[in-house]
Amino acid sequence: MATVGTSVIASKLIGMQVEPFAATALRHLLALPVLALLCGLFRPAWPRPSRRDALILLVQAASGSVGYTVLLIAGTSMSSAADAGVVAGTLPAMAALFAILVLGERPGLLAILGIALATAGVVLLSVGGSSELASPWPGRSLGIALVTAAVACEVIFILGQRRLRASIEPLAMATLMSAGGLLLSLPVAVVLWAMDGSAVSVGTTGLGAALAAIAWYAWVPTVLGFWLWYAGARRATATQAAASTAWLPLVAVVGAAVVLGETLTAFQLAALALVLAGVLIGSIQRRTPNQPDARHLRSRRSRGWMR
């Protein structure tokens, strides 16, 4: 999740120069050959999805591979990277909220508390003062709203993953999502260019930084980050995996100050603290009376009771 946190910094650099759909298409254009090469080396099993799963995959590509990137880039162009980092950190809480509202899951007290704390963090961020690099208040509010919509797109991707019937290996999934993202974003970028060529142009100031940020976004969060996340998730408990998402806002906010030179306000730091508290509290899972804890499971394995 630390690599994913850097995508917020990259999006800020990109959004200052490049139209979001053009940047999204270029991101996947750079990532897809690397993913294809990795597929050739590791030869993951390719699924034969049903029509239902194919539709879900299409929605996932539209929301996670295109919607999230486009909205994040657009949002960071109107607000500070620190603002965007705090809002992006609400991903686990928003996912839990969507699971309650859409899937009808019954939350525990800690999950509700986590959602409440994360929501309070975003509200505090919205009503608080902006940092020096943020745009004036109307633009900043819209920027925060766009980043919130980006997080909602990522939640749709996550919920779609839970609805898939076919089992898809991580590398194959990353490749499918990148290919789908390219196919969906490239036509829009071309249409925007045809309507107004300046809409997808890159400014001369910051040209190198914008292109470097797109390359970073393509190869680090998209390729390396996705692979590391799924590899780690297979070895970690669900609680550990959920708690690790706290790195996303931390890296984004620290990167905003160190890399971009943004001045962090007391409102931003307080909002970050609320979001992190919500993530960590919400990651604590309830254990049923018949469910053994992790130490008991490790003890049984060590005595050869489980294979």
Please describe the biggest sheet, giving its number of strands, its sense, and whether it closes into a barrel: none
Task: Tell the overall outline.
Answer: globular
Distance between the termini: 31 Å
Q: Could you tell me the mean pLDDT?
A: 82
Helix tally? 13
What's the quaternary structure here? single chain
Strand content: under 5%
Order of helices and strands: HHHHHHHHHHHHH
What can be said about this structure in brief?
With 307 residues, the protein is mainly alpha-helical. The chain has helices at residues 2-15, 20-42, 51-76, 81-88, 91-101, 109-127, 137-163, 170-195, 207-235, 238-243, 247-258, 266-282, 294-302.
Structure in words:
- The chain has 307 residues and is an all-alpha fold.
- The model is unreliable at 132-137 and 287-307 (pLDDT under 50).
- The protein is built from 13 helices and no strands.
- Helix 1 (2-15) crosses helix 11 and helix 2 (20-42) runs antiparallel to helix 8 (170-195).
- It has one domain.
- The chain starts with a helix and ends in a 5-residue tail after the last helix.
- The protein is globular and about 45 Å long.
